[in-house]
Amino acid sequence: MNTFGDRFVVDPSWGPYLGEISKVVRAVDLENGLAKVALKIFDKDAFQQNVVMEAFSRECESLEKLSSHDNIVSLIDLGRDAASGCNYVALEWCDANLSEHLIKHPEPTWGGFYARYGADILDALRFAYSQDVLHRDIKPQNVLVDANGRACVTDFGISKFRRYYKPGVTLIHFKSVPYAPPEDGSDFPDTRDVFSFAVLCLECVGGVPLKDYDAVHTASRKIDLPAEIREILIRCVNSDPALRPANIVVLAEEIEAAMARAATLGAVTRNVPVYLTQAALEAMRAERHLGSNELAAQQIMNELNEICGIDELDSSAVVGEHHLALLTAEFRFRAVVDETRQALSIIGVSAQNPSRLERQRDRAWQPLVQFNQAGYRGDSVAMDWLASEFAEFLTNRKVQASRLAETELFDRWSSTLRAKEGIQHLRKEPIHFSGVDIDGARLILKARHNLGEAVTGQQRLIHLDARNTVFGEIERTDGETVVLYCGPGQNLAAVPKEGQLELDVRQSQIALKRQIAALDAVKFGRNTRPDLRDILTGKKQPETPRPPADVEFFQSDLDDDKKNAVRAALGTRDLLIVEGPPGTGKTKFITELVAQVLKRKPGSRILLSSQTHVALDHALVNIEKLAKAKSIPLRAVRIARRGDEKVSPELNHLLLEYCVGQWLQDAMQRSERFLFDWAAEHDITSEHVLIGMALAELRFAGLRLHLSQERVNACRDELLALEEERKELSKDKARGDEFRILVADIRLKQVETTQAEEAVEVARHTYQAATDRARGFPDLADQIETLSEKDMVELEHDFIHHSEHGPQYQKLLVLAEEWRQRFGQSSDFHGAFINDCDLIGGTCLGVAAHALQSVEFDLCIIDEASKATPTEMLVPMAKSRKWIVVGDPNQLPPFVDDSLEARRELERQGVGRDEARRTLLDHFIEVAPRANQVSLLTQHRMVKPIGDLVSACFYKGTLNNVNEKLCPWLAKAFALPKPVTWLNTAANPRRVEQFHRGTYVNDTEVEAIENLLLRLQLAASKRKNKYSVALLSGYGGQVAALDRMAAARRRQHPDLEIETGTVDSYQGREADIAVYSITRSNPEGKIGFLKEHERLNVALSRAKLGLVIVGDSVFCDSVTGRNPFAEVLFYMRGHPDDCAFVEV
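The line above is the sequence of Protein kinase domain-containing protein; the predicted structure tokens follow.
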């Protein structure tokens, strides 16, 4: 069985189809229900040629950008097959190419061919052009036709990217005659697809293969074509590219205009009778100051017959009357179908703005008709025709609008992803640093140049040498220093004192690819629930939940709104939206829901996802505790890297790697027990068996270590060779494309080398463990160091062959060892383990890991939905049969880079800033029925005074704040006079902000918070219990200043557990005391991104016992433009019992 990429099994009964630089075979997809795919395989030896390598690269890049179009073949997978070493591309399967299809289903007329195939092919090429891609090899063999007759353009192997054109490896001489134009290169590269499309049309309509350019020119003159179309196609195949249509878009517009004119000329003009009422005549006389009804009637008829569009108009008060709008150049006539007269009765006239009328006519019906004044009896046949055709127009318009709405939504999300990719290109400038400190898994780097807040969250890497890198995510910056979180297992000590942080496109590209894959899966119905597309677009309404009545809740302290939400979720068959403002117990709701599902439907597989690790882990910890307390069977797993600091330490035992290891260990122990039992039954001494097994284990561990070391050496040698090749290529600017591909190969080889080095460490640990185990036997203790491999084999044989059943037992041992070697080593095994779990937790993008690719879920719960982009949320949703979306639309949306360059890139892709910030939660709240939306409104986290402030300022007073457990020690120790306290710097002459290296700092506010911490320490010591304190700001520079202050004074407040962070990073978390440093204060009244009310909502809703706002209240009152602080100040001044101002 010939398998590619551990996923595709080649069908030997078909093909192969041999192309010039690749071959195509049919295969089945093991991860998609054995669906047929077309597997395009590039020969391993030929791939060493630059031209083949370039063709593969271009095809992959083109299809990743374009496969969302209905008439461009869909990309399923791509990569390099490990066994054969061949690169491959897997595409959707189509039954035949266009040439083969037309032999069985000929279309000898231009109209028939264009309607069935030509228009779709042209639209696909036009879409590719809009994405800056030229196909450059259009011919009937590169257009496939599926079982439904849908034409799909394929084979982008020699495509050219217009926007990113670079000199280097070129495929310009690689062309198919006569489909490609005769010139090899010209100043008109965009006309190549124009020429090819025209030749394709001539061959398909003519029904005869065209062998050379002479045959093309002969066909253009002799084939039966409409005159205007013939003229266009003759220009397309002109040997002078300057005389062709400029590009495929221009060609499409010319053909469509010609087709529209032909349709108009071929249409039959209908006479439509019109009856002019006295009211209409009087209105026209008044509008035009006409002296008689005859003149008014003539004016009306002239207006109607000059230009007219027909559309629906608001219904009249008369039941059954259907009013129409007749839209002319200057008037809108109100008309009604008069059944008695069998005519259109004009009952109203109104002059309108001509521009508005033109826009209205563009979407109205514009039939080819002649309006005539009706006699005593009109024309029933004409009126029946008018009613029938108008009804058909309205239906078609609704269908078209529905299709446009579907396409618009997915196209908008695709554009946003393209904008993100473009913004990544803008971020490629390295960050130079000249100082390094190490803090656990973090690097603190001193930047040489000013840095803005926009770098926060970027993936960056540092090259240690030719082979090794350190990589991570920028957690924050204060303009001078950069905090890079690197995670576990990296050699941070090797980072040089000077160097540069380069953009690490690997992680961002992986993230983008996962989102593109999920978007395409949903768009084309390849996800677990194909109708998710229809639910997203509003074409299908999700079913109304049917809450079960017999729910016995596990948590006794659930309030009524959570109980109702749980019932609704249990009765949901499609989609439920759960809005949960801060402190309303979203995690408690999720915990109860998971427990109820596991109890009511054992064996259900639940996917719990979130865009933040904090929210996800908080829910998983609570679910595990409840399951244990209530004896609910639960097998859970957390998808994340082992040692990742962002994962709660409480969940280390649920990490996939750990769980698989435990499963492996249990299986090993069962294997050993079987071997011992078998030995006892056949009179084999257990002690001897143990010694034999220990020797076998030691021997195999030594072999594994040796092989691992050899693999590392080989990887290092290959990496060195690639680096040498890079040095050579860097000298030749003309080989830029080849250099880019080589750099990508080096990155992959670096990752492979790192993995090989990690495998050596694992093998070394295993070998040491096997050695220690062997030393535990007295018979071996003194011999281990001196035993050769040959000695071990002989001793193993002697110990095992002391019985006549020894040889058979040895075979069992060998079989068991081989099984151990394979057991648990592949990602498929991880998938098998996950398939056996009840609850799988992972971030939105983390659940797209290879181990979960073939896993489907019965229920998907997404928490903190406001933090995820639509395409990020689609990743987990695409894998599930129903969805519970939990979040708060008044919390912070996904981060959007607000730099000038990023805004321009968004504009270039047609994406507005508000659209880039719009989440799927916002979309669902807008389109989902109210019956599929519930709200959690009982707020427990914040004490009532804080909760009331948040409710009034951000939730229109809807929250029910029930927590009245105030902390008296805060006031007694003079730390906070009221639960909500504003430390006001307005009277301080040093209150003004400082702008420093791309961020803002306010030293006065830092000093005020420093004094506050001393008072909080006093309160904590009197309370005899610690406070958790969160020091927050919107700006990384201020956070860094607060962090330095808190670290320097840490010994002065031992009873305070202090954390610092930006408001954005602290969403989803809580603390006893939250201190928000506004930071901004300036004469101009500018607050930058602090104007967003969602950010202020997050900042003020983190506190449980005490909320402190530090800043200039006079400045906050006088902010220009949008000002979320105004309502907070107004509330605080109106509630002196709960809120206080303290002058600093």
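Note on the example: Residues 158-174 have pLDDT under 50 and may be disordered. The first helix runs from residue 50 to 66.
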